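DM between two lab members

TW: hey, do you still have the ABC transporter ATP-binding protein entry open?
JB: yeah, one sec
JB: this one, 335 aa:
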Amino acid sequence: MPDGDFITLDRVEKVFDVRRKTGFLRSERRRVRAVDSLSFTVARGEMVGYIGPNGAGKSTTIKMLTGILTPSGGRLRVAGIDPSRERTRLAARIGVVFGQRTTLWWDLPLIDSYRLMHRMYRIPDGRYRENLDRCVELLELGDLLDVPVRQLSLGQRMRGDIAAALLHDPEVLYLDEPTIGLDVISKARVREFLRELNAERGTTVLLTTHDLQDIEQLCGRVMVIDHGRLMYDGPLAGLHEVGDSERTLVVDLARELPPIEAAPARVVKVEGPRQWLAFPASESAAPLVARIAAAYPLVDLSVREPDIEAVIAKMLQSMGDTPQPPPEQAEHVVS
Ligand SMILES: Nc1ncnc2c1ncn2[C@@H]1O[C@H](COP(=O)(O)OP(=O)(O)OP(=O)(O)O)[C@@H](O)[C@H]1O
Ligand SMILES: [Mg+2]
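TW: and the structure you got?
JB:
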């Protein structure tokens, strides 16, 4: 298996049959095509963002990659292994963090969960020690090891979960919303840790998130999925270009002034000495800031990123010829 094909999906499908009661003795059967002929490859050591609107099929993809769900069609391999057929063999080589759910034992102190994993995964003592020490240091878990998981804050629990996923030195780490609900400092800490992990160990990372900054700071490549289909695969800057998305520069001037002139940025709002300028997200803010600073009495400024939903929506819109998803096939059955 060449390293370029570390993860491969070839026309992978996942169809759910959902039955819903619509009345006495009546139910409706619907087929939901959560993943629809999805093909891509990820090379060893890549850090890839996997984004899309709610219900796009992101979590379903990750569950198939871990072997939790079996594809309805197509071919899927991770490190040469078919996940749903050899889930246990694959488990030794992958790590997973679901932001919405913990893999830790709720009632036990954090360290006890790690000890259990040490034994469950049969991690050699030296390796376990080394990985644990490293995670404790970089994720600042030292003071938390003796605290029962139920008493941890969300951010602390998430860091605990990330460490748990890495104790057995996985070659690939799937992260499904690892920064959801975290404060700015916890997010920064988690990102810094992931960057180091990828740089030092070459761990392949597939990251699902609704936070554009996660992608911006971590991923050279981003894939956008919508209705189970791959709509974009490339650098984040390219995604901004396709959708013409904009960032906003918020400028505080020393006093009230007429709207700032600094094309291609344009003033979209003025409130006293504060002005908001929109500029193409694909352009660097630095030259713009320099020009404004040279010509205006600048007190303070900040750059606001567009949110990920807006970027994706604009991209999907601008693609115009977006293939429409097949209508959900509903069929009424009497049971
Ligand atoms: N176990 C299941 N049974 C039936 N339908 C499911 C199941 N899991 C997911 N689905 C459906 O498949 C589609 C894709 O869901 P998925 O959880 O993969 O989306 P997602 O991209 O992770 O969304 P989000 O951003 O909200 O987490 C949705 O329509 C969802 O309702
Ligand atoms: Mg999800």
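TW: got it. The radius of gyration is 23 Å. The CA atoms of residues 2 and 43 lie 9 Å apart.
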